Amino acid sequence: MSWNSFGRVFRFTTWGESHGPALGVVVDGCPPGLPLTEADIQPYLDMRRPGQNRFTTQRQEPDQVRILSGVFEGKTTGTPISLMIENVDQRSKDYGNIAEAYRPGHADWAYDTKYGFRDYRGGGRSSARETAARVAAGGVARKALPESVRIRGYLVELGGDAIDRANFSDAAIDENPFFCPDPEAAKRWEALVDSARKSGSSLGAVVEVAAYGVPAGLGAPIYAKLDSDLACAMMTINAVKGVEIGDGFAAARLRGEENADAMRLGADGKPEFLANHAGGILGGISTGQDVVVRIAIKPTSSILTPVPTITRSGTETEVVTKGRHDPCVGIRAAPVAEAMMALVLADHLLLDRAQCGVTRS
Amino acid sequence: MSWNSFGRVFRFTTWGESHGPALGVVVDGCPPGLPLTEADIQPYLDMRRPGQNRFTTQRQEPDQVRILSGVFEGKTTGTPISLMIENVDQRSKDYGNIAEAYRPGHADWAYDTKYGFRDYRGGGRSSARETAARVAAGGVARKALPESVRIRGYLVELGGDAIDRANFSDAAIDENPFFCPDPEAAKRWEALVDSARKSGSSLGAVVEVAAYGVPAGLGAPIYAKLDSDLACAMMTINAVKGVEIGDGFAAARLRGEENADAMRLGADGKPEFLANHAGGILGGISTGQDVVVRIAIKPTSSILTPVPTITRSGTETEVVTKGRHDPCVGIRAAPVAEAMMALVLADHLLLDRAQCGVTRS
Amino acid sequence: MSWNSFGRVFRFTTWGESHGPALGVVVDGCPPGLPLTEADIQPYLDMRRPGQNRFTTQRQEPDQVRILSGVFEGKTTGTPISLMIENVDQRSKDYGNIAEAYRPGHADWAYDTKYGFRDYRGGGRSSARETAARVAAGGVARKALPESVRIRGYLVELGGDAIDRANFSDAAIDENPFFCPDPEAAKRWEALVDSARKSGSSLGAVVEVAAYGVPAGLGAPIYAKLDSDLACAMMTINAVKGVEIGDGFAAARLRGEENADAMRLGADGKPEFLANHAGGILGGISTGQDVVVRIAIKPTSSILTPVPTITRSGTETEVVTKGRHDPCVGIRAAPVAEAMMALVLADHLLLDRAQCGVTRS
Amino acid sequence: MSWNSFGRVFRFTTWGESHGPALGVVVDGCPPGLPLTEADIQPYLDMRRPGQNRFTTQRQEPDQVRILSGVFEGKTTGTPISLMIENVDQRSKDYGNIAEAYRPGHADWAYDTKYGFRDYRGGGRSSARETAARVAAGGVARKALPESVRIRGYLVELGGDAIDRANFSDAAIDENPFFCPDPEAAKRWEALVDSARKSGSSLGAVVEVAAYGVPAGLGAPIYAKLDSDLACAMMTINAVKGVEIGDGFAAARLRGEENADAMRLGADGKPEFLANHAGGILGGISTGQDVVVRIAIKPTSSILTPVPTITRSGTETEVVTKGRHDPCVGIRAAPVAEAMMALVLADHLLLDRAQCGVTRS
Question: Is A102 in CB contact (< 8 Å) with chain B?
Answer without folding.
Answer: yes
